[in-house]
Structure formats: structure tokens, C-alpha cells
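USER:
I would value a second opinion on how I read folds in C-alpha cell form. Give me a protein, with the fold worked out from its sequence. Write it directly below this note and I will take it from there.

ASSISTANT:
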Amino acid sequence: MNQKKQLQEIRKFIYNKFYRDETGHDFYHMARVAEMARSISISENADSFICEVAGWVHDIGDHKLFNHPNKEIEKMKGFLKSIHMNNKQIAQINAAIKDISFSKGNLTPKTLEGKIVQDADRLDAIGAIGIARTFAYGGANGQLIYHPVNKEGTSIQHFYDKLLKLKDSINTSTGKKIAEKRHIILKNFLEQFFDEWIN
């Protein structure tokens, strides 16, 4: 099976896993991360195929999305084998997605491909789509938009706890340029939000 066909099969696999997600971790998030990872990999001279595949599967096994994360990772490995990806490729993909999550303690992946996928994932958390995803996640989890006294656990507080910190955690020079622009969108949004908020 050639790489184009493998990517088509991966796209179907991910669609079936995530098409009903309401938290901002839906199929289109995976598609954007895969495309961004592929794009960055070209500029950074990394393995574009590994980056794109890892972008597609990066949220498999995320504890926020699955009750049994390790089982999901094993299912993913089995699926990748079924579309004739070899053990080396599967190991590279697993290494790329292992440490990308911010919730794991802001770890830096060991491989260049992992750093690129982490960048792609974090870039999708900032900018206009990042703002939309924040409120989608908050709504799906019963969070308030904002509370001037009890700020913890609100969607607006998430900007300060995570989103505004992401620009400085980007690994690649290509990713940093994109992050600078998207960070400004976050800051402008917050300024406008508080300008409109009643006191």
C-alpha cells in the first residue's frame, strides 16, 4: 500500500473516532494538525510522512478524550500495522505523539517530528480557531465563560493558564512565526472581551 492510500485509510480511521466530538478535538482539528505538521516539516527538513500521520493520530490515547487511553494506543498500532506500516514507522509515530500534550507537564518531544507535531497541535490552540475551540471545550464540560470573582475553571481563565503561554513553548522557527501572529489575536480578543464585559 502506498503512502497516499495509507493516508486515506488513516483519514477514515480518525473520522470514525472523532466525527462526533463536541470539545474542539474533532476530526477537523486532527486534519488541521496533520496539514500544519506536514507544512512545517517541509520547512524544517523533517520526515513529512511521519509528521502528517502523527498529526492525524496525535490525540489517540488522550486521557481527556478516552476512558482507556492505553487500549486506544494499542488499537491504533494494530490499525497502522493493518495498513502495512512497518515497525520502525509505528515506533517513530508513537515517539512523535508520546510527549506532545500540555497537560503532561509541558514536556518537549525527543524527536524533530515530535517537536513539529507538538507545534502544530499548539498552533491550533491559539488564534481564531483556538478561541473557538476553547469555548467549545468549556461548553461541553459545563464551564462558565467567565466569572469576575471565581475565575478558576472558566474558559477565560484558560487563556491565562495555558493559551497565552503557548507562544513561548513553540519548538521550531517556522512554528514561532505563526505563533506570533496567533498570539496577537488572543490578546486582542481578551482586550475586546473585557471592554464589553459588564462590571
Q: What stands out?
A: The mean pLDDT is 94.
